[in-house]
Amino acid sequence: MDMVDTTKDVGKGILSIYKKYDHIRISGYMQPQFQAIQTKGAKSYSGGDFAPNVDNRFMMRRGRLRIDYIHFSDTKKPSVQFVFQFDGSEKGFFTRDFWGRIMENNTKLFSFTAGLFARPFGYELNLGSGDRESPERGRMSQSLMKVERDLGAMVSFEPRERTNWLKYVKLDAGVFNGPGLTATADYDSYKDFISRATLKPYPLQKNLSLSAGLSYFNGGLIQGDKYYYTLSSENGQKQFTIDSAQTNIGRKLPRKYYGIDAQLKWKYKNGGATELRAEYWRGTQTSSAATSETPAAVFSTDAYYARQFNGAFFYLLHSFDSHNQLGIKYDWYDPNTKLSGDEVSTASGSHAGDIRYNTLGMGYIHYFDENLKLVAWYEFIKNETTALDGYTSDIKDNVLTLRLQFKF
């Protein structure tokens, strides 16, 4: 996995483009799929909300085309990498990657990346859409860092051609605009600092490897409206209280995240493998009343809400051989850890953006070969039972996804 990339090939290294004459490489994939959900018009994080009268659909989830270019220095070592990737579907064409990387060749320890690329936070967030076993990333990563990418610059420490323990270490630190691809331009002068320390797959035994990571995100957004809500407790009653000082306008509102992840993988002689992944995030998120998603624009009339959140992703994967794989994924996202159950109510000033969700997904993946993959995946989605209208019981929004992936 390479956090400045979204394909499995580059996750293994820069691969054949490191070769002397392979300066240009073109790759891509497409993901046509069929989905069915329990309720017409249900909201969904499995490829987007369903239309009001629709409970099943065909769609082109992704259609990616990527071009890599490597320029070699006089010493025949890579010195500059350039990447352009776009996504095409029935919804239109969108840029997904557009970045350049300079590789320092004296000590072979550092590189510098600038442009539009994936934020260096977490494991699942950076696992490519063409390689991830589950059809989509978890609700938490989609809410906090939608579309995964942002404009910025990053310095990386990644020793190359080392034979000691340093070859298992990678450190990334970057500064980014903040809105990512949810906005066409930055809407304030505040920047996000994001860093990640990675232990690459380390052999614990002959057939057992461990990888892990620590991530840190320190950012924020400008307050465009004077109204700002935080949770407090008065006479034993938890409720949101408002700060409406005129001086609030223009200040920086917090977005701070902490993440930890680990992956264990057992390989078998027949080509099969068993893998366990675990990842946990916590922190502070500022957003709106209705949702905990990172705002795509400065609020002019809506109030801002600050919440303490946490969430996690767990994968259990078993490959019987190189063609057949079973997967189970469980994730939760609690956008407000200070409230639960009936505390999420109009009496406490709560909204839909405070509701916890748990998702259990399971499925079968069949790899016909390197160019064709079939995914059959079902997700059981359960929202927290609250005192809010519309959320006093579980919403029927379980979803089935049948997907083919063509790759070249």
Terminus-to-terminus distance = 19 Å
CATH architecture: Beta Barrel
Query: What Rg, in angstroms, do the CA atoms define?
Result: 22 Å
Tell me the CATH topology. Answer: Porin
The structural class is mainly beta
Major sheet description: 16 strands, antiparallel, barrel
**What's the count of strands?**
18
pLDDT averaged over residues: 92
Low-confidence stretches: 1-13
* Helix percent band: under 10%
Task: Count up the helices.
Answer: 2
- When the domains are counted, the total is 1
Q: Which key terms come to mind for this protein?
A:
globular; mainly beta; 408 residues; 16-stranded antiparallel β-barrel; Porin
What does this structure look like?
This protein has a single domain, classed as Porin. 2% of the residues lie in helices and 53% in strands. The protein contains two helices and 18 strands. It has helices spanning 8-11, 139-144; strands at residues 24-37, 56-72, 78-89, 92-103, 110-118, 149-157, 169-176, 192-205, 208-222, 228-234, 237-243, 252-267, 273-287, 304-319, 324-334, 357-369, 372-383, 399-407. A 16-stranded antiparallel β-barrel has the order 1-2-3-4-5-6-7-8-9-12-13-14-15-16-17-18. The model is unreliable at 1-13 (pLDDT under 50).
Task: Compile the SSE list and pairings.
Layout: H1 8-11, E1 24-37, E2 56-72, E3 78-89, E4 92-103, E5 110-118, H2 139-144, E6 149-157, E7 169-176, E8 192-205, E9 208-222, E10 228-234, E11 237-243, E12 252-267, E13 273-287, E14 304-319, E15 324-334, E16 357-369, E17 372-383, E18 399-407
Parallel strand pairs: 10-14
Antiparallel strand pairs: 1-2, 1-18, 2-3, 3-4, 4-5, 5-6, 6-7, 7-8, 8-9, 9-12, 10-11, 12-13, 13-14, 14-15, 15-16, 16-17, 17-18
